[in-house]
Amino acid sequence: MQYNIIMHLIQMYFSFYEDYGDYEVYQGNDEIYFFDVWRYCGLLSVQSILPLVIKLLVSNAIFGIILPNCKSESCFHLVSGGVGVYLISEVKSFEGKYIIVIYFLISYFVLLSSQYVGDGNRKRLGIFAKLALIGSLIFSEYLLIDPAIFLQIRGILMVLIMKVLSLVDETVERKTSIGILQYFGYSLCCANILFGPWITFREYLGIHSTRRRKDIFWILGICKSLILALLCLTVSNCWSTYLIPDESNRWLLAYRDALAFRYSHYFVSYMAESGMIAAGFKNPTLKDGSIWSYTIVSPMEVEFPTSLSVVVTKWNGPMHLFLKNSIYQPTKRYGQFAAIMATFLISSFLHGLEVKVSVVLLSLGLFSYLQAKARTILSSGFSACVKIKSCKQCNHKYKRDHWAVKISLILFSFTSIIHLAYLGILMDPQSNDISIYEKWNNLYFIGHVIMFFNLILII
User: Fold this and answer.
1) What is the recorded membrane topology of this protein (predicted)?
2) pTM for this structure?
3) In whole angstroms, what is the distance from residue 244 CA to residue 255 CA?
4) What CA–CA distance (Å, rounded) separates 27 from 411?
5) What is the pLDDT of residues 157-170, one digit of tens each?
């Protein structure tokens, strides 16, 4: 079974073209060799995505070059939002563009109204605004907008709403105000309006105040992220099935399908990286000022995880930060478990409340919580350093370098990889006719069996 995950993802989140072009994909034929796979699948996959890549990078590079000449903040906001509008204009559906404008205006009205309420009602308004914006996304998808049209703009709306939700905290809780030009530039910022990632308002303003000089390292940074993106594209589309053919056993096939999905996510993340760098953004924590990099995902830590919690934090760093600040921290007073599940629930809402996505996210939240709790109990019971994070000053009897601890850590890492395959198989867009139960039954519900053992340890 071969499928094109990348095209599905882009149609789900960032689709601007009705036809990406016809190209062949590798079907696991033993008579096809390496260069045949590259010629008939890899190369054509890259060619099919080039129009979107060129529009994204050229537009952001122009913005990045113009930026140092924008002396006033108003000019900066106008150029940022203006280029973002140009990228959004590639949406073919007029209704889709209309919906984006409506969301833009209503969201700003909510922010503006928060400035004219009393301090006692600000917090209530903030909570109401967050719930209303998230609810409107689900309401629009299932009741107001044609599904085919919503598919084209879902990613744009998700990034836009995440920005507005963070602005609610700025305006309501910190008693600050956002001008229309500031809102225009930030919410429609060309660097991340298509592929993301979410950034804070402060980070957005920082790019204007620093005005980083563009040099050869800037170009190299863009090229590095672009090459990694296209490499991940071909792995997802072609090499995963070339290396693990359809004749493999069920466990390898599950791993392959989950691997293909993960690499499709890496493709989107690296494309977002290249767009951010082209626009002039870079990691503020970089000590070497000459390096241009913007980390969104950490593939090595996801592919070889020490725990499921690491997968959660490294899968999409900016979104994890957003959910932590906007959802997890405010709900933590109701308990850690409630905060974790609320965070993953809101995340599923932002992704459109698609059943399989929601099941994956909520299961990931539950599995990671139980795994972390089980490791904490084992650590205390056996005085072994097996928690997710190693101790800064370890007082355990069996420290991280003890052979039994090392074996335990390897086992936890292995079960995390099993969980990734177990959850990842649900994301195959070409097997929607197969139920969640059937897919998990084919793997003997191994993920839930592991969860059950963790639960026994906790009880």
Assistant:
1) Multi-pass membrane protein
2) 0.90
3) 9
4) 34
5) 999 999 998 888 87
